[in-house]
Structures are given as C-alpha cells and as structure tokens.
Amino acid sequence: MSATQRTGAATRRTGPPFWMAVPALAFFGLFALVPLIGVVVLSFMSWDGLGTPAWAGLDSWRATLADPVTRQAMWLTAVFVVGSFLIQAPVSLLLGVFMAGRHRYRALLSVLYFLPLLFSSAAIGITFKALLDPNFGLSRAFGTQLLARNWLGSPDLALYTVMFVVGWAFIPFHSLLYQAGVRQIPAALYEAATLDGAGRVKQFFYVTLPQLRYTIVTSSTLMLVGSLTYFDLVFVLTAGGPGNATRILPLDMYLRGFRSYEMGQASAIAVILVAVGLTLSLVLNRVSGAGRMESQQAGL
Amino acid sequence: MRVRQTRQVPNVLGGVAGWLWLAVIIVPIYYIVLTSLRPQSAYYTENPLTWPGEPTLDAYRLVLENNFLLYLANSVIVTVVSVALILAVSLMASYYLVRSATRLSRGTLRLVLLGIAIPIQATIIPVYYLIVQLGLYDRLVALILPSVAFAIPISVLIIVNFVRDIPGELFESMRVDGAGDWRMLLTLVLPLARPALVTVGIYDALNVWNGFLFPLILTQSSEVRVLPLSLWTYQGQFSVNVPAVLAAVTLSAVPVLAAYIVGRRQLVSGLTAGFGK
After folding, report:
1. pTM value?
2. Which site among B13, B49, B170, B275 would you substitute to test the A interface, given the most A Cβ atoms closer than 10 Å to its Cβ?
3. Measured between CA atoms, how close is B89 to chain A, in angstroms?
4. Which residues of chain A have a CB within 8 Å of the CB of B209?
5. Of the candidates B18, B145, B252, which has its C-beta nearest A120's C-beta?
6. Where does the pLDDT of residue B239 fall: very low under 50, low under 70, confident under 90, or very high at 90 and above?
7. Contacting residues of B for A176, CB less than 8 Å apart
8. Where are the domains positioned within chain A?
9. Does B189 contact chain A (CB < 8 Å)?
10. pLDDT for position B266
11. Most exposed of A258, B46, B110, B153 (fewest Cβ within 10 Å)?
12. Would an 8 Å CB–CB cutoff place A23 in contact with chain B?
C-alpha cells in the first residue's frame, strides 16, 4: 500500500472517505454476498419457490444426497469437468503457441480462430443442435452414415458431444490467453536454446512450457471451475437429456428448483457447487502461489 | 557437422493441425450463414454445405417482424446501464481502497476479492427470491442489479491494480492545492485509469450481453426479453423453420462483430481482462 509514512504528526486521515466504497459494497453485498449466505440457509429450508420458506432441518440434504439422480449428476459432472479439461487444455495450449508464431498465414488464422467468441452460449447451442441433427444436419453434406449418428439424442454419445461443443466455444478464449503468454517469453531464451542445438520439440518442452506455467495455472483454474458450474450451453443443447444423460450438477440444481419446485434440495446442490468450486480455486492458487514469488526471468 | 540453417524447417505438422482446426471453427459458422439464406423448403432437400439454389432473406424478414429489434434494444439497455453502473461504483471503490490505508479498507478489499470465486449459477435461487420479494421480477432492472453485483469483484481487482501505479506525489500535490476527493477522482484517477476502464468495460459488457441464466430465471414476458434468451424462445417458436432460427443467431452476432471490427485490440484485451500475469 502506498500510504503516507506514519509519522507522529501525520494527519489522521490521508485517503478518501469510506462512503466512496459504499455503492459498490451495497450492490455486491445485497446481490452477491447475501445470496451466497442465503443459499446455505435455504438448503435447510423447504420452499416451493412461491410460498414462504419453512424450516426443514436436514431434510433437503438427506433427500438430495440419497437421490440416485443427484448421485448420477455428481458422476457426470466429474466426467464433464475432467473430460472438458483434457479436450480444451492441450488444444488451447498448442493453438496459442501456433498463433504466437510468426508465419504468413498465422495472422489471418488467428482472426478466424477468434470467430466463435462472437457468439453467445445460447447461439452456439442452437447452432450445434441444428448442425448435429441426424436427419438434416451436417451428416447429409458428406453423405456418409459415419456422421449420421444421433449425437445429442443418444444417451451414450450426448455427454461427449456436449463436451466437444463446449470445447468449440471455449478453446478460442483459452488459446488467446496462451498466445499472450507465449508472446511474453523473452526471445533470448529461444536464441540460446537454438545455439545449444535444441530443435523445435525440445524448445517447446524446455523453454515454452516452463515459461507458461502461470498461464497454464490461470487457464486451468478457469477451465475446471468454469466447467464445474457451467449451465448455459448445456441447457440449450440438451436441457439435461436424453433422459438424464447430460444432467450435470448445475442443471440438476436448475431442474430441481425451477421445474420440480424443490428449492431446498436445489440449494443443497448449489452449496456443494460453491464448496467444490472454492476448494478447487484455492488449491490451484496454492499450487501456483508457491511459485509466484520466483522470478519470471529464471535463467536470464 | 551441423550446417547453420538460415531458415527453420517448415513446421508441417503444426501447419496441418492449424488448418484442420480452422475447418472445425469455420464449418459451423459457414453453415449458420448459409442455412439462414436458404428457403425453408430447400432446407430439407439441399446439401447443407452448398450455396442455396435460390438464396432468400425471408428468414431475416421473419425474425425482424418477430420483435427482434425489441430484444436487441432490451439487451442494449441492460448492457449499457449495467456497465455504466459497474464502472462508476468500481472506480469509486478502487480509489478508496488504494488511497486509504486503514484496516477497514484492507478488509474490504479482501472481502471483495473473495467474490471473484463465487459462481453466479450457485446463487441464482436466493437472487430469484430477493428479486421477487423486492417486486422487481420480470423487469429489466431485475437483470441489471445482479449483473452489476457479480461484475464488481473482478472489475475492482483490475482497476485497483491500475490505480495503484498512480504516483502518490500526484495525490499529495493536489491535496496541497486544496482539491477534494471528488475532484481528485474526476481529474486525476479517472483520466489515468482510462485504459483499465476500457478493458473492464468491454469484459463486463460481453458477460452481460451474453448472459443467459439471469434472463431465464428473472424474466418471462417478451417485453423484457433479451437477445440470448430470445434465441432460445425463437427455437420453440420457429421449431421447424431452422433457417429463421439461424438467421436470429446470425443477427445476434452482428453487434459483437461490429465491436470487433471497430476495436479489435481493445476487444481482445477486454476478453482476457484480469487473467494476464
């Protein structure tokens, strides 16, 4: 903090008054903090979304945790989070490195790679629903039966299809992060590596990857916590179906709360999401925080 | 004996993968535009990746006749008002947090930063309860209030990091000249923090603009419908008219595309705001 030195004769107040922060705190307190506390309270209530919430103790928690639908939702969420990460992280990293290179086509390619970011989640969901239609979608363009599967309508395929579409929507953003990260790596490191006779692959593993470790942590945190609580695109694509094949936890929460009017149970699921999300963020921050103090310019 | 290479061997593998990814990106977008120009009857007969035999703008006409401009206006209102509020309150808060070295301000900063990790989705039920209790359900203001609240933590973080770099001497010399807090905020902090405000503004605008969950839960009538939600309702309305649905998708991307053309650099930096090192 760049405060004035505390000398004996220092004026009592050097800075602006507290009320400057009051508007922001009022918004944040009322519509973010209070709901955060509220969701914990509501998880011990029974409420149909219309009447008055009534105290219910642990009933909602018991009902939710015993429900096979929620148990399946937890499993699906784990698969979705890990699967999305395994799809997005390597592709984004390689794309970012590729985009950061100097090449005739790369400037143009980078612009084109950016295009999915122009569309909202709802737009992307609706597009892929039409595109993956087994009768009138993309499969007809190539005239093969190979593509004519019911990608979103079959319980075995739907979750993987959703992962692919979510990847399509988010990889452009993460590759931008990686591109920015690669551009900050000092050229001297590559020059030194080249003089030492390191080829392209070696340079990638011994220069690029270690230098990108903070970008990797940031991007991974966003991917993991993001896919844990991700709702929009999955809701538009499948609404949790077919059956409950893509009913990940945020959808389970929505359907339980706003379709089955079990707000207490939905709140219990929300508490689980907050807890897991916060834990993930903190753990990843710890992991990276240990290294944050080290110099970025290691080896220079 | 190593021969010195003036040019590296071309990265064939990287090049092939790069073009392959381009196909993955471009085909769906090409499909959206092409299908939106296809007559509804041809949608069931023509190959989806060929230029339509008789391209038509009927789908666009249909979407525009079905309140598209109203939904666009609602989106613009919600986004502009939200972003203006976010920037105003976040700038004031950042000025206080940076220039006031009290225990209160440090605690406040910690509390606000905690908010970055709160997932919006998980608090939607209490937010819904609150909005209903306040009698604001199904009004545009119901979308603005929580949108502002959830954007404040990241916005404050980015602006604080910027305001921190303003030399303390500037504040002191203004203080000596008798400037009050307001004048310092408006004539010193505001102009110097402008780059941060632009970045934060774009980042928040994109988030509010694309937001789907708040409109889904907090509004219902078509008078207050915003674009992302309207795409979803169009899908129900024009269920068999896929060209019309995709025309709506195309139109919904036009404002962001325009922003991209006007300020590509700012848009990209705004997109990745706060996630750099």
Report:
1. 0.90
2. B275
3. 5
4. 120
5. B252
6. confident
7. 268, 271-272
8. 78-245
9. no
10. 80
11. B110
12. yes
Contact check, Cβ <8 Å, B93/A136: no
Q: Which one is predicted more confidently, A183 or A298?
A: A183
The full length of chain A comes to 300
CB contact under 8 A, B21 and A121: no
DSSP B179-198: --HHHHIIIIIHHHTHHHHH
**3-class secondary structure for chain A?**
CCCCCCCCCCCCCCCCCHHHHHHHHHHHHHHHHHHHHHHHHHCCEECCCCCCCEECCCHHHHHHHHCHHHHHHHHHHHHHHHHHHHHHHHHHHHHHHHHHCCCCCHHHHHHHHHHHHHCCHHHHHHHHHHHCCCCCCCHHHHCCCCCCCCCCCCCCCHHHHHHHHHHHHHHHHHHHHHHHHHHCCCHHHHHHHHHCCCCHHHHHHHHHHHHCHHHHHHHHHHHHHHHHCCCHHHHHHCCCCCCCCCCCHHHHHHHHHHCCCCHHHHHHHHHHHHHHHHHHHHHHHHHHHHHHCCCCCCCC
pLDDT (tens digit, 9 = 90+) per residue, B200-227? 999 899 999 999 999 999 999 999 999 9
Angle CA A2–B185–A27, to nearest 5: 95
**Average of per-residue pLDDT across B250-276:** 83
**Which of A113, A123, A266 is nearest residue B25 as measured by Cβ atoms?**
A113
**Does residue A1 contact residue B165 with C-beta atoms inside 8 Å?**
no
Is residue B182 less than 8 Å (CB to CB) from chain A? Answer: no
Q: In Å, how far is A156's CA from the nearest CA of chain B?
A: 23
CATH of A78-245, one of 1.10.3720.10, 1.10.238.10, 1.25.40.10, 3.40.190.10: 1.10.3720.10
In Å, how far is A34's CA from the nearest CA of chain B? 8
Q: What is the pLDDT of residue A148?
A: 74
B226-237 burial, b at 16+ Cβ within 10 Å, e below that, comes to bbbbbbbbbbee
Residue A108 banded pLDDT, cuts 50, 70, 90: confident
Mind listing the domains of chain B with CATH numbers? Answer: 14-56 (no CATH), 67-272 (1.10.3720.10)
In this structure, what DSSP letter does residue B125 have? H
